[in-house]
Amino acid sequence: MLAIVIPAHNEAAHIGACVAAARRAADHHQLLGEAARVIVVADSCVDETAGIARAMGAEVSCIDARNVGMARAHGAERALALGARWLAFTDADTTVAEDWLVRQLDCCADAVCGVIGVHDWSPHLGAVREHFGRTYTDADGHRHIHGANLGVSARAYVQAGGFAPLESSEDVALVEALMAIGANIEWSASPRVVTSARTDFRAKKGFGATLLEVGKRYLPIGSDDADSADSVAIAA
């Protein structure tokens, strides 16, 4: 069995499209009928996230942690309890390609770190999109780590100790733990996802936060929001 785990905090605006895409990936014919569950972990939600996800066919767990590391870990634990051999992780503001799960499995690795695309750059200055295009490696052999596009075998996940209870960078911590145990990690551009570039991001050190920091360097000198951001790179 396979599992797609999606943490969500007040994601009513995005969760429907996210789950619909995940279900298409779970039903892909190249999985040859192997069962694949879509598990949404609704964390401290006060909107209709859970109800929408259930209506779209996801299994939903509700927790009150306001912690993405704990939410991902909760979903992974549920998947392992169901007997999942592969855990695929994405985010609630992200849509995965129809062959996303197939592409992860085709890597034949202990873990797969994928890349991301952005479906709407309008919240940001044009220069931010240009910076992304110049600095982001959308190719095999990249070294980006995104919770929105991550897969790991059940065996390697357990051996690495799973997700730490971190409010952000839990994905980086897991990959570092996988490296520490000598896991075979594929850095692939084959599994595709598209995510948002929203400014009301959930993770304090995630992709959205990084884009916001990058944008500050392009603001006019003297702007209240401008500061020194010369060391910022889009790497998470």
Describe this structure in words.
- Residues 4-131 form the Glycosyltransferase 2-like domain.
- The protein is of the alpha/beta class and 236 residues long.
- It has one domain (2-216): Spore Coat Polysaccharide Biosynthesis Protein SpsA, Chain A (Alpha-Beta Complex).
- It is built from 8 helices and 10 strands.
- The strands form 2 sheets. The protein has a 7-stranded mixed beta sheet with strand order 3-2-1-4-8-6-9, sandwiched between helices. It has a 3-stranded mixed beta sheet with strand order 5-10-7.
- The longest helix is centred in the first third of the chain and has 14 residues, at 68-81.
- It is globular, with a radius of gyration of 17 Å.
- The protein starts with a strand and ends in a 20-residue tail after the last helix.
Alpha-beta classification? alpha/beta
User: Tally the helices: what do you get?
Assistant: 8
Range of helix content: 25-40%
Distance between the termini: 29 Å
Number of E-type strands: 10
Number of domains: 1
Write down the oligomeric state.
single chain
CATH topology: Spore Coat Polysaccharide Biosynthesis Protein SpsA, Chain A
Q: Report the C-alpha radius of gyration, rounded.
A: 17 Å
Largest sheet: 7 strands, mixed
Strand content: 15-25%
Order of SSEs: EHEHEHEEHEEHEHHEEH
Q: Segments where pLDDT lies below 50 for 5+ residues? A: 221-236
- Overall 3D form: globular
Based on the coordinates given, report the CATH architecture: Alpha-Beta Complex
Strands side by side in the biggest sheet = 3-2-1-4-8-6-9
